[in-house]
Write a structure and sequence with these properties.
It contains 4 helices and 8 strands; from the N terminus they run αββββαββααββ. With about 150 residues, the chain is an alpha/beta fold. It is globular, with a radius of gyration of 17 Å.
């Protein structure tokens, strides 16, 4: 019996829906492997409209430790992270999971709503939207010195 084809929905599809429907003041298009440490989310006040922000630095975990943590995890759970296993990664641009935008801007602009490349399902996931949002929609990108952003 032939197997049914898998349909993969790209992240920009869901991000666009959330962007247009959110009531939030600030939207952080984080991926599921982001960990927000102490004081990270308390950092924000008001963000200017029509600007995409991103952390100046995120901390990435060593792969070996990542596998150990995933195996030991009891999900869902709130955990303290041993930050000694994470190394700084200084961002030059907004990457997929590190895009922060005012709620008013996301409601108005969406997330790549007119870009057919990103608003369609795929048979095989082969790329990441990465900096597509700021590259195609925003003229201003700013770094923020946000504390304690960790990525598994």
């Amino acid at each position: 019996m032939p197997m049914a084809a898998s349909i993969i929905y790209q992240r920009p599809i869901g991000r666009n829906i959330v962007a247009k429907l959110t009531n939030a003041d600030i939207v952080w298009f984080a991926d599921c492997d982001y960990i927000f440490g102490r004081d990270c989310l308390d950092y924000f006040g008001t963000l200017s409209d029509n600007i995409v922000y991103h952390p100046e630095v995120i901390y990435r975990i060593e792969r070996k430790i990542k596998v150990q943590m995933i195996r030991a995890a009891r999900v869902p759970n709130i955990i303290d992270v041993d930050t000694s296993h994470f190394k700084p990664d200084y961002l030059r641009r907004a990457i997929g999971g590190a895009q922060i935008i005012s709620g008013d801007t996301t409601r108005e602009m969406g997330y790549l709503p007119l870009d057919a490349e990103w608003q369609q399902s795929l048979d095989k996931y082969s790329r990441d939207d990465g900096s597509a949002c700021w590259r195609n929609q925003f003229t201003t990108v700013e770094k923020l010195a946000i504390p304690a952003v960790y990525v598994m």
